[in-house]
Every structure is written in C-alpha cells, then in structure tokens.
Specification:
The chain is built from eight helices and seven strands. The protein is of the alpha/beta class. The protein has a single domain, classed as 3-Layer(aba) Sandwich (Rossmann fold), CATH 3.40.50.
Length: about 240
C-alpha cells in the first residue's frame, strides 16, 4: 500500500488532499503545527480499517523538525510514495510595513519548509526508484499580488524550486510538479473582504471561487500513474483568473 505525506493537512486544501488520497487507498500522514484537534479528528475519521492515517506535529520551517517528520513517517509506514508540500501561511501587508520577523517566518514556512521536507524525503524515494512530489504554490507566485509581496515571493520560489529539483531527480523516476491555486475558499481567504472576493470572482473566467477539492483532484492526478510523463510542470487551478 502506498503512503502519502501531506504537510499542512489539518484543514483547507491539505485536508481535501488527505481525504482524496485516503479515499483512493493511500495511507496518509497528516502533518500539522497548531491545529492538533482538527488533525487528530481527521486522522481518526480516515482510519477505516482499509487505510491508516496518522497526525504528526512538526514545524517544517525548522530543518530538525522537518527531518523528524520524515523519519517518523518512514518508521511508521516504511516508505513515502507521495509528498505534497502544502503547508503555508499568508500575509497581507505593504512591504514597508512588514517586519523582518514576519518576512522570515513566512519564508521559513512557505519556501524553506518545502525544501527541507523534500530534501529529507528524497533519499527514500531515490532508493525506491519511485516518487511523486506535488508542490502547492499560488496564482500570486505567477502574477504577484499587491500587498502580498513577501507571500508572492515565497510562492514564486516554489515554482522555481519545482522546475529545478525535477531536473535533479528525474533519472530516479521521481516526478515533481507544482499547482498554482487561484482564490480557494479556505481559512486563509477569510481575511478578504466581501468586496475583494467579488472583484476576484469577476476576474475569474468561470465566475466562481474555487473549492479545496478542485485542488485535491489535480494533486491526486499528478501523483497517479496517469501522470508518469509529467514533471517540472506548473499548472494553474484558478478558474481562468486574469
């Protein structure tokens, strides 16, 4: 049975991805930082006798904790077939009003965290000559967002990281791809005003705000055998945002 490690999986997009993989027969590791109750509740729900789900706390922005997260996953399940780097935080603020601590914290979680977890996961995948890595970026990583400069920079970094690491590990039969969600209805978007959400919706070709399951469906496809010849790709799930 295959195993998927999903960071930031206690809610929102990560939760939807965890549910999708468990539904399709994967053992699932639900990484979380602060939402212990939600993570453990989700793990209990997904444990149905056919698949196993465990919740593991780790601050992926800390390289030591990232290493322990991967080590614990391998101790429990023996292998990691799929890594979904989903954990992330948002920050809406003018750059000149942003503190150095806020910049560092965001970069640690959104950019360095995925790099740390990937680094620790790769030896096992290389040894198995198999692996699927799905990185979750953002439409702002493509276009940049006013008052989301640092966030945009972190997500743009994820795009570059995806393209670069896919070239390093392709010969080990490891696929690395990136999803750029548009406006998705999660806790992270709760800070947007109704007016801002309406503006973004009006700029979206499909005329609606996305759901976490919209992203989960693509994440699962990219981890499937049907996507074996796709790597280094950056795919938008944004309803045609322009």
């Amino acid at each position: 049975m295959k195993t998927a490690l999903i960071t930031g999986a206690s809610r929102g997009i990560g939760e939807a991805i965890a549910r999708k993989f468990a539904k399709n027969g994967y053992n699932v590791v639900i990484n979380y930082l602060n939402s212990r109750e939600k993570a453990e509740k989700l793990a209990n729900e997904l444990n149905n006798g056919k698949v196993r789900a465990v919740a593991i706390r780790a601050d992926i922005g800390d390289p030591v904790q990232a290493k322990i997260l991967v080590k614990q996953t391998l101790e429990i399940f023996g292998r990691i077939d799929v890594l979904v780097n989903n954990a992330g935080i948002s920050l809406t603020k003018l750059l000149i009003d942003t503190s150095s601590n806020e910049i560092e914290n965001l970069m640690l979680t959104n950019l360095l965290g995925p790099i740390y977890v990937t680094k620790e996961t790769l030896p096992s995948m290389i040894s198995n000559n198999y692996g699927k890595i799905v990185n979750i970026s953002s439409m702002w990583g493509n276009t940049g967002g006013s008052m989301e400069t640092v966030y945009s920079a972190s997500k743009g970094g994820i795009i570059a990281f995806t393209k670069a690491i896919s070239k390093e590990v392709g010969f080990s039969n490891i696929n690395v791809n990136c999803i750029c969600p548009g406006m998705i209805l999660t806790d992270m978007t709760s800070g947007y005003s109704i007016e801002d959400m309406k503006i973004i919706q009006d700029q979206t070709s499909l005329g609606r705000i996305g759901q976490p399951t919209d992203v989960a469906e693509l994440a699962y496809f990219l981890a499937s055998e049907e996507a074996n010849y796709i790597t280094g790709s950056v795919i938008n799930v944004d309803g045609g945002f322009n």
